[in-house]
Amino acid sequence: MLVHDKVLSYFTAWNRYLPGQAPSLQFDDTGIFGGFGGMRLYSAFQPILSADTLRPVAFEALLRARDANDSPLSPAEAFRRADTPDQVVYLDRLCRVVHAINFFNQDAAAGDLFLNVSGRHLMRVDTGHGSTFEKLLGYCGLTPHQIVLEILEAHVGDLLRLQEAILAYRSRGFRIAIDDFGCAHSNFDRLWQLTPDIVKIDRSLIVQAEQNPRARRILPKIVEIIQELGAIAVCEGIETAAQHDIAVDAGADYLQGFHYGRPTNELMSHLRPNAAVPSSPERRYSFAA
After folding, report:
1. Cβ atoms of residues 136 and 80 within 8 Å
2. At what angle do helices 213-228 and 241-249 cross, to 10 degrees?
3. Which residues in the chain come in under a pLDDT of 50?
4. pLDDT (tens digit, 9 = 90+) per residue, 11-43?
5. How far apart are CA 34 and CA 60, in angstroms?
6. pLDDT the model gives residue 207
7. Which CA distances in Å does 129 have to 22, 68, 125, 166?
C-alpha cells in the first residue's frame, strides 16, 4: 500500500501543533489509519444506492476512532480532542485523506466518495477552501470530481461564510451535499441560498412518515421541492423494508441505510455478486448485512 511522500510530508509538518504526536499515517491489516492525540482513526464505507436500480452509485466514508486504550470513540468525541483551531483543520483533513487513500486503494471506480467536512473547519479556514485538499487528493490518486463534500449546515451559523466556502469548493469541481436536512434549524430558505448538488433527508423524517400518515403525505412534497432546486434527494437512515417503500414512493433519487449495508472497511463486501439485487421483485431486499 503506497502513500505519496508529499502526503506524509504534509502531515509530518503539521505535527508541530501536536507535541509528542506519533506519525500521522500508519498501516495495519485493515488498511491505512490516522494517528491523532493517541487516537487511531479508521475508515468505514456505507453504500449509497440508486433508487431505480438498487445498486451502489457512491459510498459515504465514516470515521471509526479508538482511543489509546483501544476503546471506541464516536466521531463527535474524536473531534472534541482537537483543542485549537489549527488542530481542528489538521484533524479534519487527516480524516478525509485517510478515507481517500483507503477508497482509492480498494476501488476508486466503485462510484463517488462522500466525505464529511467539519463545520468548525469551515469557520477556521478564511479563504481558498478546497485548494489544499485538492492537492492532497491528487497525491491520493483522486480528483475533486469524484468527491461529494457533506456539510451539516444547521451547525454553521454564519450563512455568508458558508456560501463562500461552498462556492470555492464547487469552483474546484467538488460537489456539495447538505446533510441531515429536516433536523435542528435546517430549512428550505437556506437550501435556496446554498444551492447544493445533493440533499440528504434526515432519518427522523422517514421514521415519522412510517408512523404518521400525514408525515407520509408530506415527504413526497419535500423530495419534490429538493428536486425543483436542481438537487438530488437522498433518503438516509433506512433500516426496514417498510421505510424503503416509503422512500421509493416519495420519489427519492438515492437511498442509504442499514437496510442495504452496514458500514465496513471493505468496499467489496457491498459489491460482490451475492450482495447485488436480483431481478426478481420478490428478492429485491437481498443485500449484504
Report:
1. no
2. 50
3. 273-289
4. 777 666 565 566 688 888 778 899 988 899 999
5. 18
6. 95
7. 27, 32, 7, 8
pLDDT of residue 33: 92
- Here the cell at position 116 is 464529511
pTM confidence score: 0.88
Distance of CA 247 to the CA centre of its chain: 20
| Whether 84 contacts 17, CB under 8 Å | yes
Classify burial at 265, counting beta carbons within 10 Å of its beta carbon; exposed 0-12, middle 13-18, buried 19 or more: middle
CA–CA distance from 158 to each of 33, 39, 124, 168, 188 (Å)? Answer: 33, 31, 12, 16, 16
Task: With CA atoms as reference, report the closest residue to 60 among 193, 198, 186, 213.
Answer: 198
Q: Which residues pair with 175 in a beta bridge?
A: 148
Q: What residues pair up with 32 in beta bridges, in sequence order?
A: 27
Give pLDDT, residue 137.
92
> At which residue does the C-alpha cell 480524516 appear?
95
Distance CA 12, CA 149 (A): 25
CA 106 to CA 128: how far, in whole Å?
A: 30
Beta strands in 212-267 (DSSP E): 232-235, 254-255
At 110, is the secondary structure helix, strand, or coil?
coil
Give CA separation, 47 vs 78, 124, 132, 164, 190, in Å: 23, 30, 27, 30, 27
pLDDT at res. 202: 92
How many separate helices (H) and strands (E) can be counted in the chain?
A: 11, 11
CB 25 within 8 A of CB 7: yes
Residues 6+ apart with CB under 8 A from 167: none
3-state secondary structure of 177: strand
Read off the pLDDT of residues 54-103 as tens digits, 9 standing for 90 and up.
Answer: 999 999 999 999 999 999 999 999 999 888 888 888 888 999 999 999 99
* Residue 52 DSSP class: T
